[in-house]
Amino acid sequence: MKKFFPVLSRDKATSSVNLEASETQHPSESIKVVDYELLETDPGIRPPISSYHPDIQNEVRKAYLKIGRHKPPYNFVYPWSVQGNQRRRFCKNWFDLYDWIDYSESKDLAFCLPCFLFKNVSKYGGDYFVTEGFGDWKNSHRLANHGTSSNSHIDCVHMSYALTL
Ligand SMILES: [Zn+2]
């Protein structure tokens, strides 16, 4: 069974997610409210878009686009991990290099915001950036490849732009 998030919706069309307050709404009204403060922003633990009722998925996407990419505080110390015979970690300048990249402090993994937002409606599906995150720091060229060569990513970026127009 799909898990919906009733606190995010006051849409009369989605009876399964109505709030008590919606009983006072006029039947012709369709008010969709996404409370930004209730959205989990850490990409390692935020619920997938597909877990929201389809009627509010675009509102949730818009909210995430307004909030922007998840970045740790400036003084956050990115943890080292030993990969091969070298210590590696997430590089802060990837936020500048890749305008789509998200970072999860809780998982120490990189994610892709546009892919997270649109993977469930992209005809190309998605890749590990969305569901599993990326932590293979020694092969960081894969980050560049994701941004330029992934059909799924390019499709998701286009849909992100379209939603903000
Ligand atoms: Zn992507």
Automatic annotation (TrEMBL):
<dbReference type="InterPro" id="IPR006580">
    <property type="entry name" value="Znf_TTF"/>
</dbReference>
<feature type="domain" description="TTF-type">
    <location>
        <begin position="86"/>
        <end position="165"/>
    </location>
</feature>
<protein>
    <recommendedName>
        <fullName>TTF-type domain-containing protein</fullName>
    </recommendedName>
</protein>
